[in-house]
Specification:
- By secondary structure, this protein is mainly α.
- It has a domain at 16-35 and 47-96.
- It contains four helices and no strands.
- The chain has helices spanning 17-35, 43-58, 64-78, 85-96.
- The longest helix is centred in the first third of the chain and has 19 residues, at 17-35.
- The chain is globular, with a radius of gyration of 16 Å.
- The chain starts with 16 loop residues before the first helix and ends in an 8-residue tail after the last helix.
- Residues 1-11 have low confidence and may be disordered.
């Protein structure tokens, strides 16, 4: 197949750098959360939503509203745990690469 210069081939979601970045950030935060020694009330919510994000990143390009919902739940459940703030920021940055939140 011929391509003119400057064109990139169409790739599936496994090659999409946004999906790769999301998988990496989610994996890192899941490890940090698992290693965090202190229990807190909403830890289960964070673990569930991180698992949901990991699944979305494995099965194609995620839906932006669902990504944002998961991010909101994760931030609400671990946002006050300063030891996890860097990992949470990485997940947020990875979600932001998929586009701005929808208005309406």
């Amino acid at each position: 197949m011929l391509r003119s210069s400057g064109q990139r081939p169409v790739t599936d979601s496994k090659d999409d750098p946004r999906v790769t970045g999301l998988r990496t950030a989610v994996s890192r935060l899941r490890r940090e959360l698992a290693a965090h020694p202190v229990e807190f009330a909403d830890r289960g919510i964070a673990e569930d939503e991180l698992a949901a994000l990991a699944a979305m990143a494995t099965h194609g390009i995620p839906e932006i509203p669902r990504l944002r919902r998961s991010l909101l739940l994760i931030a609400g459940s671990i946002g006050s745990v300063s030891a996890l703030s860097h990992g949470l920021s990485e997940v947020r940055a990875a979600v932001d690469l998929f586009g701005p939140p929808s208005r309406g």
